[in-house]
Amino acid sequence: MVSKSQIKFIKNLQQKKYRTEHKLFVVEGIKVVKELVKANMKPYAIYTTSNAILAEESFKCELISEADLKKISALKTPNNILAVFHQAKAAEIAEDNWLVALDDVRDPGNLGTIIRLCDWFGITNLFCSSQTVDCYNPKTLQATMGSMARVNIVYGNLEDFLQATKIPVYGAFMDGKNVYKEDFTIKKGILVMGNEANGVSPEVEALITKKISIPQFGTKTTESLNVATATAILLNEIRRG
Amino acid sequence: MVSKSQIKFIKNLQQKKYRTEHKLFVVEGIKVVKELVKANMKPYAIYTTSNAILAEESFKCELISEADLKKISALKTPNNILAVFHQAKAAEIAEDNWLVALDDVRDPGNLGTIIRLCDWFGITNLFCSSQTVDCYNPKTLQATMGSMARVNIVYGNLEDFLQATKIPVYGAFMDGKNVYKEDFTIKKGILVMGNEANGVSPEVEALITKKISIPQFGTKTTESLNVATATAILLNEIRRG
């Protein structure tokens, strides 16, 4: 049984301002819940409609009715489990390795894919400009899976951050230097990726030391690669050396 | 003014069986309409609520009311233009270059991203297994932009296709050979990418000559990369040589 006030509280967490205020977020589905628990994310409350989950899983959860789950779920067809987790406390960014910085990436799916890519390529720090979409957006969480727990995500003023850094700043541009000719034996740097529609903003561009570009092999068009696929290719280039 | 029967006809095209039956598809938004017209895709009908578009654009379109556009649109908040195009006739696949083959990719966004990647990397042929999501799905079209017009997409039996081919067949697997060690100076081959949840099916796996894999640099997990980002990285590896 979920009380009316709890239902309201959990529904409110669908909005960023409530998530930020309470430092909580919601995920749905057994796979991601298990991943986050395994990665030592701290649960606030876990609700399930499944006796099997209640019996099998080591984490503490509360059995509720399907009607109640429907009330707290953001999904049209709810899974059998919904969990509220505490947001990870952002740690200070160590500049001893490569890191990724996002300049106003707005699509939650793109952000989720980028977090997952950071995790795959051993990038443990992700800096997001203040206007970048919330990493606890449900669509972002859906795309990140458990990676969320392994990447330190910090929101802040990107210009200030780039002005203060002492490591090289690379940025993805349509007219940058061919990335295949770049020397990535260097062990630290920042890769800046821009907004979906406008790319890197002029203010941020002014703080970039190396502009890089992925060569186009097909018919030359004005279209660019999607920011998440471009990040995939560039992180692969950086790590392959 | 759009007649009732036209409204019904266009709404029906939201379903794959009607699109296939009539060999038509629907796109919304000026950018993609312009891209497809420019790429010589043949319009069947174009509707707009904008006098400016009617006056400025060279293609023939019909001025309709916002109420009518809302009736034929699949979007909650319609753009000011909706177009019905003829589906491109699939051409025979020439095996004189690299091509991509998909084994039951189900997410329309992933398919759209992969089509866009093919276009970027000069892959002009894409073979889709019969169970792969329809390339004229609205979410696919949203992700492809104009690339759709530059990639020849063929649906069919993937096993038969791979059995008949004379060029090498590469496939993406978690336990494949490190792709960085692969010699991609060869000028033709097939890259097979698997289903989001299950990867490449055993039947298709049996027809693959080289299993390749993208190295993981972060904490080793059982999670894989998303199929679209993995395709991005592998096509980049193939083209960089």
UniProtKB/TrEMBL annotation, chains A, B:
It holds the Pfam family SpoU_methylase. InterPro entries: Alpha/beta_knot_MTases, MRM3-like_sub_bind, Ribosomal_eL30-like_sf, rRNA_Methyltransferase, SpoU_MeTrfase, SpoU_subst-bd, tRNA_m1G_MTases_N. Signal peptide: none annotated. The keyword Transferase applies. The keyword Zinc-finger does not apply. Keywords: Methyltransferase, Transferase. One of its GO terms (molecular function) is RNA binding. One of its GO terms (biological process) is RNA processing. It comes from the Bacteria. GO terms for cellular component: cytoplasm. Belongs to the class IV-like SAM-binding methyltransferase superfamily. RNA methyltransferase TrmH family. This is RNA methyltransferase, TrmH family. It comes from Cellulophaga fucicola.
